[in-house]
Amino acid sequence: MKFWGSATLATGIFLAYLIPDTLVFIPLFKTFAFIHEKTGVELINHWWVLIILLPTLTVPFCTWIMIGYFASIPKELDEAALIDGAGYIQVLSRIFIPVALPGIIAATIFCFTVSWANFLYGLAFTTSADQLTLPVGIVTTLIRGDVYAWGQIMTGALLGAAPPLIIYALLMDYYIAGLTAGATKG
Amino acid sequence: MAQVALRNIVKTFDKTPAVRGIDLDIADREFIVLVGPSGCGKSTTLRMIAGLEECTEGEIYIGDQLVNDVPPKDRDIAMVFQNYALYPHMTVFENMSFGLRLKKFPKQEIKERVEAAARILDITELLGRRPKALSGGQRQRVAMGRAIVRNPKVFLFDEPLSNLDAKLRVQMRTEIKKIHQQVTTTTVYVTHDQVEAMTLADRVVIMNAGRIDQIGTPYEVYHNPRTRFVAGFIGSPTMNLLPCRLVENGSGLTIRLSDWLSFPVPPDREAQYRPRVGHELLFGLRPEHITEARGDSVPGAVPFAARLDVVEPMGMETMVYFIVDGVEVCGRVNPTSAGLVGESMPLVADLNRMHLIDPRTELVV
User: Fold this and answer.
1) Could you list the residue range(s) of the whole structural domain that residue A144 is in?
2) Would you call A84 and B98 a contact, using CB atoms and an 8 Å cutoff?
3) What is the number of structural domains in chain A?
4) What is the CATH number of domain B240-364?
5) Could you say which architecture CATH assigns to the domain B4-225?
6) Which band of pLDDT confidence, cut at 50, 70 and 90, is reported for residue B24?
7) Cβ(B333)–Cβ(B292) under 8 Å?
8) Distance in angstroms (rounded) separating the CA atoms of residues B341 and B233
9) Cα–Cα distance for residue pair B115/A94, rounded to 1 Å
């Protein structure tokens, strides 16, 4: 759907995404320190902070995936719905979202995989063993100097790989549909 | 059921005019066809009636209501799109009932209406299918069904047959005509195909470069075109248009087409054409009014002979082409009497059906 400023917003999101996340975590650290100073809320070394942080990486990219996906839906479809008596919210909920479901699922899988496998933010913002994410925890707690606890590292790797595998297997059909979006006329 | 009125409608896209001020009155239950070449503003006009485009200037009335600021959903119209625009995630039944479900009609009534429309369109057995399991013609029927079930004030068709193959297009054209005879709703139909326009319309509206060139019954626009554009656009093969000079020759007026070909003006047209004596004009005559010479002489039918350049047998008739001063002229003759290429064939021109066009004003004299 077109709305005022939509093209500018899309370009803005794209440009923001060009900034590498390795550049962002130092200013984020300073921001967290500032918030702690002003409000007393401690944001460092809490696993739930990553839930707020990781979407800053995934949402812009997913927005781009979804812009492309929505653009592939013929505009006559929402015009037909408007004429059939739907309002804009109904067009979105009853036509666009169901039609774009493969794209939404593709974006969801992407978000999950990127967030689940993210190493940098986990390493930078969590420190104590009870707050570490799995990828960071495996490396920081199971490798001591040059001593590798291979058995535990492998177990951790297997456990870490399981959720994405299960999700891929369950949603594969939709994911493939998402990847071939726009290849044929709807 | 309702009449539609357009009052001085103008539409500009970023300073590019698409529609340049049109006035049109469509009567209740009338089947109007907007026809014209690509970019003439016909689809834009339809979309403005639908409310999908806002008009830059002018007023649109549906029934007695001014609808300029009424959103599409409240205009009580139904539209059939060129690419069908069926909802891919819904079955045929759900597609057709979508509008009624949004308006919270009782389930039983929705079922009855959808089934009635499905019977008219002969798609009852398809109601459980998804659009992707339908052929092009079936999808087009579903798209029409979705319009019919709503029982709207106005049907809008935007080139609905353009995506179908030639044979199916002819078949669906007849279907649309039949459906309009059963479901007499005011209809505005847009097409660039003049055959569709002629066969379907109660009145044809011929648009050219954002303006209406002529409004009339199919018979009127075919036999009495008002402008050069209409004369050339309507009819297939198109009307022969030849540069000519109107001269006085003592007893009457003569149309000089070339050194070897001149036609006398029929006496009943002389008064009408006399002010144009000496002018450079365009002579228009349809191919079916240039036929093989027969024994009997009809008033206004002028015999002449021409060397044939191309002969095209069509089965029922044969098209013969000859050159007059560098301009190709087409005639429709009986297959049995068609001549051979390179040879001279006796022909006859029915000048009662001729037109003279002033090339400066582009108007038929």
Assistant:
1) 6-179
2) yes
3) 1
4) 2.40.50.140
5) 3-Layer(aba) Sandwich (3.40)
6) very high
7) yes
8) 28
9) 23
Query: Which chain B residue lies closest to A74 (C-alpha atoms)?
Result: B85
Interface test with chain A among B76, B100, B102, by most A beta carbons within 10 Å: B102
Cβ separation A76–B77 shorter than 8 A: no
Nearest CA in chain A to B89: A99
* CATH number reported for the structural domain that contains residue A92 in this entry: 1.10.3720.10
Residue A106, domain member (yes or no)? yes
Tell me which residue in B50, B79, B85 faces A74 most closely, judged by beta carbons: B85
Q: What tens digit of pLDDT does each residue of A91-135 get?
A: 999 988 888 888 888 888 888 888 888 888 888 888 888 888 888
Residue A28 belongs to some domain of the structure: yes
Does residue A181 register a pLDDT over 50? no
Residue A184 maps to a domain: no
Q: Which A residues in the span 81-100 are in contact with B, Cβ-Cβ below 8 Å? A: 81-87, 90, 94-95, 98-99
Reported as a single tens digit per residue, the pLDDT across B202-217 is: 999 999 999 999 999 9
Reading the block at residue B289, the tokens are 């009014």
pLDDT at B219: 94
Domain contains A168: yes
Average of per-residue pLDDT values in chain B: 90
Whether B294 has its CB under 8 Å from any CB of chain A: the answer is no
Residue B139 has pLDDT above 80, yes or no: yes
Burial of B288 (0-12, 13-18, 19+ CB in 10 A): middle
Q: In a 3-state reduction of DSSP, which class is residue A79?
A: helix
Q: Which two tokens stand for residue B94?
A: 């759900």
0.90 exceeded by pTM: no
